[in-house]
Amino acid sequence: MKYIAYCRKSREEKDKQILSISAQIAELKEYAKREHLEISEFVEEEKTAKVPGREKFAEVLKKIEKGQVSGIIAWHPDRLARNSIDGGKLIYLLDTGKLLDLKFPTSWFENTPQGKFMLNIAFGQSKYYVDNLSENVKRGLRQKIRNGVYPGKALMVISTIQKLEE
Description:
By secondary structure, the chain is an alpha/beta fold. Helices cover 52% and strands 14% of the residues. The radius of gyration is 20 Å and the shape is elongated. The chain has helices spanning 20-35, 55-65, 77-80, 84-95, 113-146, 156-165; strands spanning 2-9, 38-46, 71-73, 101-103.
């Protein structure tokens, strides 16, 4: 069985999460060797999975639909989906027999009703994580404003105004 290894980090900025993808690649290579799995290619993407529309992820799904590969290896289910549409697509591909297997060094999966149920829970937890994180960040920013602190980088305009007032 041929697998695509999908590695994703959430941020596109080059200075953020610098080692994330390289660490995933190294771990997946070791995992594939240990489990005797054939990886046909590595797909790397620097895009959040909070919303659908990742181009490289869509390409992976097309290769599965065309029968070019039968499985996906990823570090964790949250690398594949943090939204209900992408998670649903993967489960549907499993249901239709186009996607035969998913492998994760960090969690168990088997293509059975129980396995798909647990995968759906993992995708749900991933969605909850990003939704909850967003709420917590917003709460923190509102508190900074209440405390009189500008929530972010200082604006050049503010320092210019202060200089003019002096």
